[in-house]
Structures are given as structure tokens and as C-alpha cells.
Amino acid sequence: MKPLLEFRDVDVFYGPIQALKGISLTVNEGETVSLIGANGAGKSTLLMSIFGQPRIANGQILYRGEDISRRSTHFIASNGIAQAPEGRRIFPDMTVEENLLMGAIAIGNRYQKEDKARMFELFPRLEERRSQRAMTLSGGEQQMLSIARALMSRPKLLLLDEPSLGLAPLVVKQIFHILRELTQQGVTLFLVEQNANHALKLSDRGYVMTNGEIRLSGSGAELLVNPEVRKAYLGGV
Q1: Are residues 149 and 189 located together in one domain of the fold?
Q2: Residues near 227 by Cβ (< 8 Å), separated by ≥ 6?
Q3: How high is the pLDDT of residue 209?
Q4: Phi and psi at residue 122, to the nearest 5°
Q5: Using CB atoms within 10 A as the burial measure, which of 35, 68, 129, 158 is most buried?
Q6: Which domain holds residue 193?
Q7: Residue 165 maps to a domain
Q8: What's this model's pTM, rounded to 2 decimal places?
Q9: Looking at residue 107, what is its pLDDT?
Q10: Closest CA to 188 of 164, 216, 214, 160
Q11: What pLDDT, in 10s, does the model give residues 154-182?
């Protein structure tokens, strides 16, 4: 398989504190890869470093073979990487439709009409609420909007930061059902999640992060039955 995203021995610091320590991982084209770990392990920092916030101190981040670790956020966003961030970060005073159009800014308005129709097909709830202000949506609907907005830039790689955070179990199932549909459509997903059960069941491969380091890696199926993973992240079941 052809690598789409690679971290090679990446270090990240916040002042004197080292947040990422020699991180190496790969996301191949067409794969779903999850990064699991406890809160504060460094997962979100890893995702943010792709966009240069924060900048890495050592190592390389490669996208389609090119080192992007010193590239601008705009360059990265306009060349096929999009993120549905932790906490959703939708535009609360804008309507659902306006939020979607904001997602297309990185690639221009050429495909806006057809892509908006595609989002409403994928997320029927959003079409029902297309004229509502985003702040009036439920948590699950806001998460759907965050994902749909990211997809409006036609990404080759979709980054998802804690998509299940704060959602009811039934809504989490709905979100992961949608993510599975995206994988079947050939979208490459890199998923950061505390909900290890859902993430690993969806993923081709996974990595486990502890204190800024990769501790384990393997297929999603392998990690689901790994005793260390089951004890730490699956309640020992």
C-alpha cells in the first residue's frame, strides 16, 4: 500500500515540556487508522502538528512523500487534508448550509453545489436543518456538521479528533456508522479516539499512545484482543 501520511521520528515541545517523543507512524491510502490513548497522552497534539500548530522540533511529517512540516496551514488544507476537530468548532451563528460552504473555501466554489447535495445525502438530518443556526443543533448533529464541513474540501485524508466526545451511546453508533460508509467510499481516515472499542472495530490498523510515545501498534483486530489494550481501554472485557 502507498503511504499517504508519515511521521518519522517526530518530537514536539511545549516550552520545556516534550509532548511527542520520537513518533513514527504511517497512514496508507484507503486505510482507516486509529490512534488511541488516555486523555493527555498527546493524541490531539499529534493531529495539530500536521497543520503546524505546534511546529515539530525534530523529524519529518510527510504527505504523499513531501515533507510538510514547514508548510503553511493553508497549503496543507488546500492540498487534500481536512480535519473535524475536537469540540466540533462549528460556526455557531451561521446556518448549517453556511457552515458547509465555509468548508469549501480551501478549494474554491467550483464543486459547492454537488458537494453540498452529497453531504445532505450522507447526512439527511443536516438537510432537514439546513437553514437553522448551528448553535441550535444537538451535539450529535453538530458532530455530523463538523465532519460534513471537512468533507466539503474533498480531502484525500480526513482527520477526526475525538468524534464521539460527549455524545450519547446511540449517537456514537450513528457517527461510526457514517464513518464506516466513508471508508467504503474510499476515504482515508486517521482517527484519534478515547473510545477504543468503536475506533478499533472500524480501523484497519491502530496505534496506542502513552505519554507522548507509541507503545503498541497492530491491526484493529489484533489490538482489540491485546490484553494490555483490553485492560487499559476496554474495561478489561
Answers
A1: no
A2: none
A3: 94
A4: -75, -35
A5: 35
A6: 25-53+70-80+156-237
A7: yes
A8: 0.91
A9: 76
A10: 160
A11: 999 999 999 888 888 988 898 899 899 99
